[in-house]
Structure formats: structure tokens, C-alpha cells
Amino acid sequence: MSIRILTIDDHPLVRDGISAMLEVEPDLVVAGEAGDADSGLELFRSLLPDVVLVDLQMPGCNGIEFIRRLRAEFPEARVAVLTTYSGDGNAREAMAAGAYGYLLKSALRGELIDALRKIAQGKRCVSNEVSQEISRHIGDQALTARELAILTALARGWENKRIANEMGISAETVKSHLTRIFEKIDASNRTEAFHIALRRGLVRLDD
């Protein structure tokens, strides 16, 4: 039987590329396409596809929030992120939200097709590049919720005083948190912390 796939991506060219790639596979069928999470959820309800491919970064509701919403309504839904972001933070958050896979748009055609077949069988698939990134940080100390909030504020360009005012803490406390953050992510200054946070997907500035 054919594996029916729903693709959700705000770039039509990406959706067209996926369709062109899958149309030559006898067991893979694109059942529907959507340009945003809300439309994708509506389509899922009507189509009940076997696998959903969703982009990570989209206007409005991002891919991870879509996964949470979808799995809350359809606990058995099999969904995979298809993205350009290889950071371990994004991948871990997506899998924790209920994703069956975390795949890169740069993946070879055969790798992506093989992953779709495995996910349709209920197996989990993570691109090799992402798996290696996750492995590199397995022993790292996790950032606390407060530290993640401060790191996000730093990535937005906020100075310590503004962070302190917004969070209702002292500037000295902010400095103390930043020191621990730098130690945990192996950064020597704010600029380096910003780049590491974005590369690893520890913060998202679309929220």
C-alpha cells in the first residue's frame, strides 16, 4: 500500500521539490500540501496521512509547536521535521514534542526516502549530521528555564539592565546567570554565546 505524505512548508519551491522527488517512487504519494501550520492541521484532519513532513521555521506557529498541537489531537500521528537547521537543541526539542524524525533538507534523496519509509513503520530517524551534533553535547550541563530565557534575551540584543528589569531580578543576578551560561555552552563572551545559541538551536527568535 502507498505511504501517503502531507508536506507543510511556507516555500512553494520546497514543496514542489519534495513532490517531484517522491512522484517517481511507487510506494510514496504526496496526499496534500500546506503553506502554514494551521492549514496543515486542517488538512491532516481531512486526509489522515501516514507521515507529515513539516518545516521548522514558518510564519506564526513554528514546526515544533505544530507537532505539539498535532500529537495532542492525534497521538498516533507520525511527523518529521524537514529543515535546514542542524542544531542539537532544535532536534532534541522536536523529538521531545513527539517528532518521529529530524531530517535535513540537504540530505541525499535516498536518505530522505528511506527515512520516510521507516517513519511510516513507526521507527525514528535523525539525520547523521544531527545525530553527531547531539552526541557531541550529551554530557553537557543542561540550561535551566531561567538561563534559556536570559540567553534568548541576549540573542535579541538586550543589555543586562533590560534583562533584569523584564525578569524582575537584579543586574548582578543577570551577570551571575550569564557566567554560568557561558560555562555551560563553552562561550567566552556575549557575541560567541549568541552565535552558539543560534547554531545549536538553543533559542528561537521567532517566538
Name a few traits of the molecule.
Arc Repressor Mutant, subunit A; Sig_transdc_resp-reg_C-effctor; alpha/beta; DNA binding; six-stranded parallel beta sheet; 207 residues; 10 helices; Sig_transdc_resp-reg_receiver; Rossmann fold
Question: How many strands, what sense, and barrel or not for the largest sheet?
Answer: 6 strands, parallel
The H-and-E topology, N to C, reads as EHEHEHEHEHEHHHHH
Structural class: alpha/beta
Measured by DSSP, the beta-strand proportion falls in: 5-15%
Cα-atom radius of gyration: 19 Å
Please state the average pLDDT score.
Answer: 93
Helical percentage: 40-55%
| Biggest β-sheet: strands ordered side by side in the sheet | 2-1-3-4-5-6
What's the CATH topology label of the largest domain?
Rossmann fold
Low confidence ranges: none
Corresponding CATH architecture of the largest domain: 3-Layer(aba) Sandwich
CATH superfamily descriptor of the largest domain: Response regulator
Globally, the shape reads elongated
Distance between the termini: 39 Å
What is the count of structural domains? 2
Q: Which CATH first-tier class of the largest domain would you pick?
A: Alpha Beta
Number of strands: 6
How many DSSP helices? 10
